[in-house]
Amino acid sequence: MKNPTSKQLATQLKEFYYGKNWTWSNLQETLIGVDWKMAITKIESLNTIATLVFHINYYLINQIKVLNGGPLEGSDKESFEVPSITSEEDWQILQRDVFRNADHWIKIVGKLDDSKLTSTFVNKKYGSYYRNLMGVIEHSHYHLGQIVLLKKILMK
Hints:
The structure is a single chain. The chain is an all-alpha fold. It has a single domain (4-154), classed as dinb family like domain (Four Helix Bundle (Hemerythrin (Met), subunit A)), CATH 1.20.120.450. It contains six helices and no strands. The chain has helices spanning 4-18, 27-30, 36-39, 49-67, 88-111, 129-154. Helix 1 (4-18) packs antiparallel against helix 5 (88-111).
């Protein structure tokens, strides 16, 4: 087998989005019942659900560009600049884009040869492909926990 680790990484991200991961929390089920008004509701200095969903997607998009042979672009600051959401349609469009990008990442990574995982991701300072692919999975779970808590607070 040429890519058991890459396939496992793809599976882990798929489970983050759609379920059956080790934590039994996933983005798709967590966003059920979150309408656009709830998604943009600010609680003190915390990020909104919409901002966190956008933020998770931002890093995935940038990895997809690199995985497709493009440059690494973006910045941490931009990763929190969610487009204005002023309707349920805007919120649904963001979610649709998020899941479409996740499906694309899962497909690309699932086909990646494991020998690529130890190579440098764009620049030596970023480490290996494995570090970055696994990092986006860990990062996503971290923010999913925040989304779960925000939703619980907002549903009170």
